[in-house]
Write a structure and sequence with these properties.
It is a single chain. By secondary structure, this protein is mainly alpha-helical. Helix 1 runs antiparallel to helix 3. Helix content is 81%, strand content 0%. The protein is built from six helices and no strands. The mean pLDDT is 78.
Length: 138
C-alpha cells in the first residue's frame, strides 16, 4: 500500500513539474501575451497564465488517473476544436521563433504568395489530422 501511495505521489509530482515546464515554455514563447495583445485583454494576462497552468495540471491528473468524463459528443467536439487551436498555435509560434518561413522564402527567392503557403500548411495539418483519426491510424 505504501508503495502505491509513493508511486502516485511521484507520478503526480512529475506531472506537475512537466506541466510547469510546458507552461514556462508556452509563456516564454510569448503565446499567451500575444493572444492577450491581439484580443485587447492584456489586463487579464495573469489570469490567462494561471488558467493555462491549471489546465495543464488538470490534464496531467486526468491522464494519470483516467477518470471518465461523461459529457457526450458536444464536449468532445469542443475539446477537439480547442485542442486543434492550441496545437496550431504551438506550431505557428515555434515556426515564428525559429524564423523558418522567412529564411526559407529568402533562400529560394520566394516573394509572393507566402500567406497562401502558410494557409496551405495549416490546411494540410488539419486534413492530415482528420484522416489520421478517422481512419484509425492512432
Amino acid at each position: 500500500m505504501w508503495q502505491q501511495i509513493f508511486l502516485a505521489f511521484i507520478g503526480l509530482c512529475s506531472g506537475v513539474i512537466i506541466a510547469g515546464g510546458m507552461v514556462g515554455l508556452l509563456i516564454g514563447l510569448s503565446i499567451v501575451p500575444r493572444y492577450a495583445g491581439i484580443t485587447h485583454t492584456s489586463e487579464h494576462i495573469l489570469l490567462y497564465e494561471d488558467i493555462t497552468l491549471l489546465g495543464t495540471v488538470l490534464g496531467n491528473v486526468y491522464f494519470l488517473f483516467e477518470f471518465p468524463i461523461p459529457l457526450g459528443a458536444p464536449f468532445l467536439i469542443l475539446y477537439g476544436l480547442f485542442s486543434g487551436i492550441f496545437l496550431g498555435s504551438w506550431i505557428l509560434a515555434l515556426a515564428e521563433v525559429a524564423d523558418i518561413i522567412p529564411i526559407f522564402s529568402r533562400r529560394i527567392r520566394f516573394t509572393e504568395g507566402i500567406p497562401k503557403v502558410i494557409l496551405s500548411v495549416a490546411f494540410g495539418k488539419f486534413l492530415g489530422s482528420l484522416l489520421f483519426y478517422y481512419l484509425g491510424w492512432a
